[in-house]
């Protein structure tokens, strides 16, 4: 019952937000010579005046209610056709109707207001205690035009309200996004940095083999957690913000950057063999930190999904046209179904129990490639999987 009442109040408010309604009611009275006009909200159990023009002291004001069963609008709600009466006294159907007698009118016109979605809203109506010539094509077409205009404005008001609600939700989402990114970027990184620093300190102070193994486990876990945080930060910025941003630098020393990433990975996987083949003949305009992040994701992926005794092959070269990077590893073929969604977020191929992650690494790497105007692709056979990055050597992507 409370919801129904709230809906009625919202409908009255919606009509009140349409400045044209007051002018429409005044025009209706002027062209018909009738003294009372109104926009009525008619439901299955209520007749409510949303806006009123009253020069005959009918006594009904905005928000006023008539008993539904006593109104002709109740019948219009059911058949959704207009009702037009020049003079009740000479009208065959309404001369003995209860409504004209109850409310003391002789002329009457009421046009249904049908919303864009087909719902019946109510009526645009007018009455007068004297006869009036209203059953004419021009008057009927004018009322129909005004009813359609009111319906149009009601739809516009509803759409505006929906847009405002959506905007408010987006603002709330933006606040949550900023809080989420802050938690990832600050609150999680602080204890992670403490763990990583403590592991390094323990490694220096204690040289026992068992302690050394435990320190390596801590360091490895810290490295993987940091990678997860980086990927989630970029995912949040890319999907909830304006996309992954890059800062292009002239003549970026990508060879040095790639070697640094390999050294960091080698510290985490000291027993793995990584073979490098570099040939940089032309300078590359790129975001070095982003390329390092992309390469770290690809190399980490290769280390995770290849046999421990195998060799990871990293090939990189640049020429006057483009920069190429290949990261190849032995291992199982990536299934065709997984290949189709490999660069989508939260999507990973078949994994072993120790291969954990969120499935964001390859998505982030692909987005970094796109931001450079390049492309990241993959090929996979029964023997080898190879990820290929190609980006323009210059800034033609901009």
Offer a quick outline of the entry.
By secondary structure, the chain is an alpha+beta fold.
From N to C, what is the helix and strand string?
HHEEEHEHEEHHHHEHEEHHEE
How many DSSP helices? Answer: 11
Helix content: 40-55%
Q: How much of the sequence is in beta strands? A: 15-25%
Assembly context of the chains:
single chain
Q: Specify Rg, calculated over alpha carbons.
A: 37 Å
Mean pLDDT: 85
The secondary structure category is: alpha+beta
Which stretches of 5+ consecutive residues score pLDDT under 50? 350-358
Q: In the CATH hierarchy, what is the architecture of the largest domain at level 2? A: 2-Layer Sandwich
- What is the tally of beta strands? 11
Keywords: Kinase, Phosphoprotein, Transferase, Two-component regulatory system
Catalytic activity: ATP + protein L-histidine = ADP + protein N-phospho-L-histidine
InterPro entries: GAF, GAF-like_dom_sf, HATPase_C_sf, HATPase_dom, His_kinase_dom, HisK_dim/P_dom, HisK_dim/P_sf, Sensor_HK_Regulatory
Protein name: histidine kinase
């Amino acid at each position: 019952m409370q919801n129904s009442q709230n809906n009625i109040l919202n409908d009255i408010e919606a009509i009140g937000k349409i400045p044209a309604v007051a002018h429409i009611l005044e025009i209706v009275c002027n062209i018909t010579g009738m003294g009372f006009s109104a926009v009525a909200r008619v439901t299955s159990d209520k007749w409510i005046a949303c806006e009123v023009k009253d020069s005959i002291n009918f006594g009904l004001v905005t928000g006023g209610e008539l008993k539904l069963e006593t109104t002709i609008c109740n019948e219009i709600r059911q058949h959704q056709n207009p009702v037009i009466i020049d003079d009740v006294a000479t009208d065959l159907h309404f001369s003995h109707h209860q409504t004209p007698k109850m409310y003391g009118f002789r002329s009457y016109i009421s046009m249904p207001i049908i919303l864009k979605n087909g719902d019946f809203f109510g009526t645009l109506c007018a009455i007068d205690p004297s006869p009036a010539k209203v059953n004419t094509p021009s008057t009927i077409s004018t009322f129909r035009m005004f009813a359609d205009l009111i319906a149009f404005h009601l739809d516009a008001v509803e759409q505006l309200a929906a847009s405002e609600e959506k905007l408010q939700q987006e603002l709330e989402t933006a606040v949550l996004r900023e809080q989420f990114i802050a938690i990832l970027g600050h609150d999680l990184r602080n204890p992670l940095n403490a763990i990583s620093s403590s592991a390094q300190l323990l490694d220096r102070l204690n040289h026992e083999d068992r302690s050394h193994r435990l320190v390596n486990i801590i360091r490895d876990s810290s490295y993987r957690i940091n990678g997860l945080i980086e990927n989630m930060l970029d995912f949040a910025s890319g999907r909830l913000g304006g996309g992954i941003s890059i800062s292009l630098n002239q003549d970026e020393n990508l060879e040095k950057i790639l070697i640094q990433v390999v050294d960091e990975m080698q510290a985490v996987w000291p027993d793995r063999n990584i073979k490098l083949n570099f040939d940089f003949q032309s300078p590359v305009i790129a975001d070095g930190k982003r390329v390092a992040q992309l390469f770290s994701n690809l190399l980490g992926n290769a280390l995770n999904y290849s046999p421990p005794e195998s060799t990871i092959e990293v090939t990189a070269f640049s020429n006057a046209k483009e920069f190429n990077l290949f990261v190849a590893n032995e291992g199982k073929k990536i299934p065709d179904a997984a290949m189709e969604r490999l660069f989508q977020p939260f999507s990973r191929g078949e994994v072993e129990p120790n291969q954990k992650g969120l499935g964001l690494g390859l998505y982030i790497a692909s987005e970094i490639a796109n931001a450079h105007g390049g492309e990241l692709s993959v090929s996979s056979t029964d023997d080898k999987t190879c990820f290929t990055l190609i980006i323009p050597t210059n800034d033609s992507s901009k």
